[in-house]
Amino acid sequence: FEGVDRMYELMVSIHEVDGRLYILIKDNGRGMSEEQVQQFNQIRLGDKKDKHHIGMTNAINRIYMYYEKQAEVRIESELNKGTMVHITIPGVEKEEENQNENSNC
User: Are 24 and 89 in contact (CB under 8 A)?
Assistant: First the structure.
């Protein structure tokens, strides 16, 4: 939000469809250039192309490290308008969820 002179907005939504979690993180910050968006959308495990956005690169790498090819991270952004990060990962299996609940008793 650095340099943004409007009220900050950050929205996170998560929903599950057919065993997959769809996460949307959206803000009205300063956005990114098309080149930056392309760099982030091309990140795969181990990439460290952009030294100025270490946190975001690290977060994307961790998602791919944990979920491998089952994950998808896609970024949309427009300068001075904001950014949307779309993350798709596998959901928790219902059977696994029930086993975890029973083991806590």
Answer: no
Residue in 83, 91, 75 with CA at minimum distance from that of residue 14? 91
Regarding pTM above 0.85, the answer is: no
Phi and psi torsions of 90, nearest 5°: -65, 145
Q: Where are the alpha helices (DSSP H) in the chain?
A: 34-41, 54-67, 94-103
Coil, strand, or helix at residue 81? coil
HSE-CB at 80 with a 13 A cutoff on CA atoms is 1
**Token pair 């002179």: residue:** 5
How do the pLDDT tens digits run along the chain, 105 residues long?
Answer: 777 788 889 999 999 999 999 999 999 998 999 998 988 888 765 555 555 567 888 888 899 999 999 999 999 999 989 999 999 999 977 555 555 666 665
